[in-house]
Amino acid sequence: MSKLLGSLHSQKESLSFSDLKSEHFVGLDSSFIHNRAMAYFAGTGNIRPKFFMKTSDINFLMNMISENLGIALLADIVKPTMPDIITLSIKDDHQPKFVGSIAFRKNHLLTSEERMLLTILSKYSLN
């Protein structure tokens, strides 16, 4: 499931991606899978998103959203870092799924950070 983060459209809880034709976007750079989801939604919604900026820094992305420089398409696991950022569900059918895997040796002793990561990821598990 995908969602939009932004300070726009606050009167709605969800919308179609095609409703965003006139909006400006901020996004993560090409090293993130979110670009494939954006391309998918742009294709199915028949729009060409206008990007203000792309970045690899999630905190900078959240600052741009908070400053109302654009909206962003992110996976559900990403949480807003500022109280003025809202999330909106995308109601389009056939949404792309964000799938990730993690592997480690059976005898590996997990650090506290690794255990925390597994706990967070297990909340979003499809199993």
| Termini separation | 15 Å
Q: Describe the strand arrangement of the main beta sheet, using strand numbers.
A: 2-6-1-5
Chain-averaged pLDDT: 82
Percent of residues in helices: 25-40%
Task: Spell out the helices and strands N to C.
Answer: EEEHEHEEH
Low-confidence regions: none
Rough outline: globular
- The helix-and-strand class reads alpha/beta
β-strand number: 6
Q: Assembly state here?
A: single chain
How many DSSP helices? 3
Percent range for β-strand residues:
15-25%
**Rounded radius of gyration (Å):** 16 Å
Please describe the biggest sheet, giving its number of strands, its sense, and whether it closes into a barrel: 4 strands, mixed
3D architecture notes:
With 127 residues, the protein is α/β, with parallel strands linked by helices. It has three helices and six strands, in the order E-E-E-H-E-H-E-E-H. The protein has helices at residues 34-45, 58-66, 112-123; strands at 2-6, 14-15, 24-28, 50-55, 72-75, 86-90. It has a four-stranded mixed sheet. Helix 1 links the parallel strand 3 and strand 4 (50-55).
